[in-house]
Amino acid sequence: MSTTIDVPESSNANVKGKGVVVAPARAGGMKKGIAIMDFILRLGAIAASLGATVSMGTSDQILPFFTQFFQFEASYDSFSAFQFFVITMAMVGGYLVLSLPFSIVSIVRPHAAEPRLLLIILDTVFLTLATASAASAASIVYLAHNGDQDTNWLAICNQFGDFCAQTSGAVVSSLVAVVIFVLLIVMSAFALRGH
Asked: Which of 178, 84, 49, 86 lies closest to 123, judged by CA?
């Protein structure tokens, strides 16, 4: 559907009857683009949070010394911060999966404020949860890599290299999810600004 608008002649124009065709405004163009980007970022955050959960939950390494009865083991369930990390990142991943229908509603109805408002509130709550779990796990990973001379904590990553690499990867993946959450909140706030 297009509209023709007659424009009066200017003093320099020699041709009569020329009009300007104006394209119709697309309904929800910018907000629809933000909603599509929101959906794509949610898929990335799902991959990052569930990847962090699986990576941390499967981290386990056993070092045999002398006999098979005397062994040293490093596992995520040996550290309460890692247990907290696995539980909270699984919750974050579950929330992100459950938020996908609301993100789809925002694509279909880009001017609807209610789904966006719900998502921005819940995204903020789960951003806090993801940040807390990533920070607690990062502190333990830091101690595992560097130790602490004041408390006589030895760095265990020299002996448990695979365990440390896997837990470090999980922390990095969770921090990627945190950054995506921040982007989701900023984009939702930007989309709500016009309402």
From this structure: 178
